[in-house]
Amino acid sequence: MKNYDVVIVGAGPGGIFCAYELEKLDPSLKIAVFESGNRLEKRHCPIDGDKIKSCIKCPVCAIMSGFGGAGAFSDGKYNITNDFGGTLYEHIGKEKALELMHYVDTINCAHGGAETKMYSTAGTDLKKVCLQNKLKLLDAQVRHLGTDVNYTVLENIFAELEPKVDFFFRTPVESVEKTENGYVVRYQESGQPAEASCRECVISVGRSGSKWMEQLCRNMGIETHSNRVDIGVRVELPAVIFSALTDELYESKITYRTEVYEDNVRTFCMNPRGVVVNENTNGIVTVNGHSYNDPALHTENTNFALLVSKHFSEPFEDSNGYGESIARLSNMLGGGVILQRFGDLIRGRRTNWKRVEESTTRPTLQATPGDLSLVLPKRILDDIVEMIYALDKIAPGTANDDTLLYGVEVKFYNMEVAIDENLETAHKGLYVIGDGSGVTHSLSHASASGVYVARKIAEV
Length: 460
Ligand SMILES: Cc1cc2nc3c(=O)[nH]c(=O)nc-3n(C[C@H](O)[C@H](O)[C@H](O)COP(=O)(O)OP(=O)(O)OC[C@H]3O[C@@H](n4cnc5c(N)ncnc54)[C@H](O)[C@@H]3O)c2cc1C
Description:
Layout lengths: L1 E8 L3 H13 L5 E4 L42 E4 L8 H4 L1 H20 L3 E4 L5 H7 L2 E3 L3 E4 L1 H16 L4 E3 L6 E4 L4 E7 L2 E12 L6 H11 L3 E2 L2 E11 H11 L4 E4 L6 E8 L3 E7 L2 E7 L10 E11 L7 H16 L3 E4 H6 L5 H6 L9 E2 L8 H17 L9 E9 L3 E2 L12 E3 L10 H17 L1
Parallel strand pairs: 1-2, 1-10, 2-7, 10-22, 18-19
Antiparallel strand pairs: 3-6, 4-6, 5-13, 8-9, 9-10, 11-21, 12-17, 12-20, 13-14, 14-17, 15-16, 18-20
Bound molecules: flavin-adenine dinucleotide.
């Protein structure tokens, strides 16, 4: 059996920043990181647009898993705010959370991100314009690394950590058990069962590890709670339509309360001059987006999600199951993601290839033309249509017939794991950080939670 001071499960931003900070604070610690996916340079999605056009549902998704986690090929937008991206501040306090997010930014800058731009909503007139149109612009600073620089930053951090930390790639941890002096994690090595022991164990398994996390909580008697899922579409339109917002703020998080149902709809993950991409969560294909920092890789379109939050009350508990069922419907009808022109949706007709070809907005993702009204519940679709018309007032052209809608975009939330102000479970020395805890939903919050726990462990 291998022996470590600290074992980290998952090499996404949470796990990486935890390892980074631990090693920096106490180089004598023996640290291991177990990761289901590959090393960064070996992470390749088989979709080549030629032989393989859509998701073939690999057992371990190269987009979601591996060094860098779900964030590796993301747009690399590090939002520094307590207004969205998670509720880490509820555990560690608002000031501490912001301080750690700024600290993470300094590490990213020191590893290749220094030349990228930091945007801010402070002092913008757009706030007033939004309010005048029943929209609310949320406060944030955002460092946009871009998919390309984000990758470089990860490469540099890995190069620094590799000689000091034991990384086990393509090695999913099967189980974690409490022992007299700490924990033992079980996994497979060359097809044989293997074990590693540790004094403290940090679980950082993100969204792709959500089912595993649920099982672990059941096995170890850790309380969990789940009642939220966000469902919607990804909107794609010519970049000029949104340029007043994106040139100044890059990412604007705008919320809207609908008149009909009084539901909250919000923009999410805005990608100026970016591309729309497939995402595979537990075998279900949904949609996402990203963009590059390098102008040579820019497209003529901007994309963002419009999401409606669904909170369920008793007796229903399986909010993610609800979201999955809706995404499955789109996969059933379209073989994956469905694409519809806004004008076709409003006229109650499906989009077909001819209408896509005639559209002035060229899609950046090859999705199946279809009818989103056969997939999304009426209430959610009504909310989205209402918000598109509201956005049209601050960014005229948003409600054009040729605006493209891709569905389904689902933001699954991991169930919230019962953790205290140290992000520690009821079991001493067992910490749960990042998106796997249900507390964070973003790169900056997940990374900050990793630094926080590393400092707690190092001060013991
Ligand atoms: C396409 C895309 C774009 C995004 N863009 C942004 C963005 O611009 N800004 C932003 O703030 N957020 C963005 N996000 C969300 C962001 O990536 C996540 O919030 C963040 O990665 C969470 O970090 P994490 O470390 O908690 O989890 P993850 O990044 O999900 O990492 C968890 C890791 O744990 C591994 N794992 C799971 N189970 C096990 C196991 N049993 N044993 C070993 N390893 C395991 C997984 O393989 C994975 O690599 C995006 C997400 C996607 C998918």
